[in-house]
Amino acid sequence: MTSPQQTSVDGGFPTAWMELFHAYIDQTLTSDQWATLETVLREHPEARRTLVDLLALDSALQSDHAFCEDNTTLSESEPKFDLSTQAVVALPKTKAIAPRESLARTTVWRRTSTIVLAVASLAASLVIWLGWGANNNITSTDAVWLEVLEVNDLRLSSALPAWNAGERLQLTNLKIDSGEVDVKLDSGVTLSLEGPFHAQFENSGSMQLFHGKMSAEVDEKGKGFTVRTATSEVVDLGTRFGISAKADGETDVVVFEGEVKVRRKNNPAKPEKWTTLKSGEAVRVAKQKELQRLARVRLSKNKRLWSSQSSSPNSLVVDVEDNATEPEFLHYLGVVPQGMGGDSQPYSDRPNVRWHPMAGESFPAQLESTDLIRTFLADRGDRDLEIRLQVSRPCIVYILIDDRHTPPQWLEREFLQTDMRLRLGPWPANSMKDTPADPDGRVFIPCSVWKCYVDRAGTFVLGSPVVKGSKGQNLMYGIAVASAEPDPIP
Fold first, then answer.
1. 0.85 surpassed by pTM
2. Domains in the chain and their CATH numbers?
């Protein structure tokens, strides 16, 4: 149901709105008018204000007439409001009566104080019904404008109409029962939201997340965008990041690119120090606990969706973890099902470095759409590194390693070198002294591809890229995993 045509009175307020308001006050709304009024009130703050003002005026006029006739009887059929309980959560649908012909024929209310209370309570009910209710964690709220970019099986709470791509909406409170939606705020913040989800906007630069999962991409205009949960506060510093909050307050924060600041909110009277998270870092914030590293994050190939869960149904890669124990080490290993391919990202901490085919060649078909494991460049110097890869069925594990240096012994012992090669980059021209830049001033590192057949479900251990006694230092290797049929029984 769309809003009525906004033909205005004296070039100002829409006459169709006024007709709806008077019909509501007269209690003569039809079902179609009721649906239209709900749409108008949801989308237009000035309509809400005007209706409350009209109700106050109508009540005052009824009061004056009541005192003149000394008739103070309150009909049992009239709606009763109680501001102390705020029990009214929607527009009160009263029993329909015949239209008024004069004030003398209307039902009058008991006292002026009752009128004031009723009008105030109705205003409160309108606020709550439209998702503008106050929350204990929010001191003030302003409705924000947003554009709906994309919807996917989206089901909103029953109080909201369906959304379509391309719509512009104004709201404060948002509840998603299921599905996904991408929206862009006027502040320059793009949000990808996944149901079930509940959040409340304080303004276009700040929101309270009660529960649910989201990703945010913030341009320069929206820098400083803030998300608060029951246990944490996250401030964007120009980035792409994700936040997931549970009803008990446990919050996961993942940085895909750029930086954010995060701090715990366990003691509102004594704010804790900020921790800065950079690209490829992730933490979990829980009540009365220090920040904990999220060692693995599951990512989506073509969408902004992500999860901190170990696996999803039918996953080939069940889990991946390393042996890092340093408290300041907060990098995560990224699992991207079917994510390997040209221009795919090998490192969680280097979003601009990608896998490319060799010059003049196409991307190897054997690697295309295999499961990608994002490692991190920071591990290239860890001599004691171990990465444990848990798989659910027989598979082929591919290691893509810097071809300029001697491969580590564990790789030569357990893997077979293939004839496939890829390029890794681009890197700044002055960052790789032994590799010339291309005509565009970019440097790409050649990598060889090694493979190992894993014949059963279980855990496979990978070692360090460091080679003792080797001149120079390998880059951190990349990992891809492909499904494979088990060897036939002879």
1. no
2. 9-129 (no CATH), 135-294 (2.60.120.1440), 296-490 (no CATH)
